[in-house]
Amino acid sequence: MKLIFEKSVPGRRCTILPACDVESVSLPDSLRREEKPALPEMSETDISRHYTELCKQVHGVNCGFYPLGSCTMKYNPRIDEEMAALPGFAGVHPLSPAQDRKGMQQVLDTAAEYLCQITGMDDMTFQPAAGAHGEFTGVLLIKQYHDARGDKKRTKIIVPDSAHGTNPATAAMCGFDVVNIASGPDGCVDLDALRAALGEDTAGLMLTNPNTVGIFDKNILEITRLVHEAGGLCYYDGANLNAVMGVVRPGDMGFDCIHMNLHKTFATPHGGGGPGAGAVGCKAFLKEFLPHSALAEEPGHIQVRSFQGNFLVVVRALAYLLTLGKEGIPEAAENAVLNANYLMAKLRGTYTPAYDRLCMHEFVLDLSDLKKETGVSALDVAKSLIDEGIHPPTMYFPLIVHEALMLEPTETEGIETLDHAAEVLRKLYHKAFEDAASMHTAPHNMPIGRPDEVQAARKPVLRWKNT
Question: Whole-angstrom Cα distance, residue 390 to residue 293?
Fold first, then answer.
């Protein structure tokens, strides 16, 4: 498919502007461009066809099943978009007079109140622009807490080996040394390894519960107690909050601060570079370190982003909270857990679960035996799913499971979709024994087959150059 710049035809237009009915004002030469911007020139018909063609090449939850583990790619209700598009929200300017921002502030305050109730926190900021940015902010709270007490010796953050990759990166970016601890055979934190890692230099622990392999750690209260006894704080990665929201609260598990991916748990737009929101909550003793907008009534706080963060994302999240209500939030979590266990049960006997026990919102399959017997890898199965109209699950993560496929069906999928997904996965399993060669080259029906993902990550081409 050609880029829109390559389809450009000099002189082609798609607008007819009325004659100017106000005085014309010219900018001084010092403010003018020396060259005209290299914008595509196209007709309205060609523009419409171009973006329609692009749309056909994108797979989203409105196209088919999207079981991307730990990312909670669930359906975003259209009413949330309608609320965010209301002129009073979409048109507000952060520098407008305070009386014109009262509705905006009420949205932020109400969303903070509800999310504090759900997480067991005492205060909340919406400044962070994404989940990873929220992580960074949350760990800085821990750093500031220790620094304010003059406890400079706390230089280490403990991170389990099953953690999301952003956790060790965040800790390192905040200036901490990362201490990696092993998981036990049950996929949970090894308590002996945790005890051995704790000491006077421990600043805190980064953990998500349920964890990355979809298991609720039965020792969570003991884990947070041990960290607190050592003088550290407990940070909750909210990536998997969708499995427990309204059922159990991280604050009650012993966590001191938390970030939430509003796009994963509260049905706001997901991915594509933003806008996102990584709301950060904390217990009362950390409140003084929370970043706040310069427009807030309490000046002097540090900012991690301009103004109030991505406000319209919070509008969407609040609309979702109000739609589901007190009864709907835990029901969504319970259905997410139900769907994951149902799909795992449908695949048991064909595929091997990495941890064959009751899971939460997601589960991990171990395809090591399949690869040994047929040569078909987890990557081959994932790519073959594309030809079946199903988005691939997370591959090769967590690293503690070889040939891993992590599936998260989410609460918004019906039993028919789950049955179809199980049928397709079983079909691909048998196909691995019958026609492994074709699976090595899948997908076959897409514009792009298997791009060089290493080069794409290390040497990305992010813009078009007019040669």
Answer: 42
Q: Are residues 205 and 271 in the same domain?
A: yes
Pairing of strands 156-160, 177-181: parallel
Total Cβ atoms within 10 A of residue 196: 11
Strand (E) or helix (H) holding 235: strand 233-237
Neighbours of 86 (CB within 10 A): 13
Q: Are residues 189 and 217 in the same domain?
A: yes
Q: What is the largest CA-CA distance in the chain?
A: 78
Give the domain CATH number at 423.
Answer: 3.90.1150.10
What's the rounded Cα separation, in Å, for the pair 218 and 223? 10
Same domain, 2 and 142: no
β-bridge pairing 233-237 and 257-261: parallel
Tens of pLDDT, residue by residue, the chain (467 residues) = 899 999 999 999 988 888 989 998 889 999 999 888 889 999 999 999 999 999 888 888 889 999 999 889 999 899 999 999 999 999 988 888 888 888 998 999 999 999 999 999 999 999 999 999 999 999 999 999 999 999 999 999 999 998 888 999 999 999 999 999 999 999 999 999 999 999 999 999 999 999 999 999 999 999 999 999 999 999 999 999 999 999 999 999 999 999 999 999 998 887 655 678 999 999 999 999 999 766 655 555 678 988 888 999 999 999 999 999 999 999 999 999 999 999 999 999 999 999 999 999 999 999 999 999 999 999 999 999 999 999 999 999 988 899 999 999 999 999 999 999 999 999 999 999 999 999 999 999 888 889 898 999 999 988 888 76
Is 29 part of a structural domain of the chain? no
Domain boundary, last residue among 321, 352, 367: 321
Same domain, 342 and 294: no
Give me the number of domains the chain comprises.
3
The CATH number that applies at residue 236 is: 3.40.640.10
Print the domain residue range for 440. 330-456
pTM for the model stands at: 0.91
- Supply the DSSP string of 89-136, one letter for each residue: HHT--TTS-GGGGHHHHHHHHHHHHHHHHHHT-SEEE---SSHHHHHH
Please check whether residue 68 lies inside any domain of the structure: no
Asked if residue 386 belongs to a domain, the reply is yes
317 and 334 part of one domain: no
Same domain, 166 and 278: yes
Residue 451 per-residue DSSP state? -
Q: For every residue of 249-266, which 3-state class applies, written as one string?
A: CHHHHCCCEEEEEHHHHC
Last residue in a domain, options 298, 321, 344: 321
User: Which of 63, 79, 71, 73 lies closest to 412, judged by CA?
Assistant: 73
DSSP state of 26: P
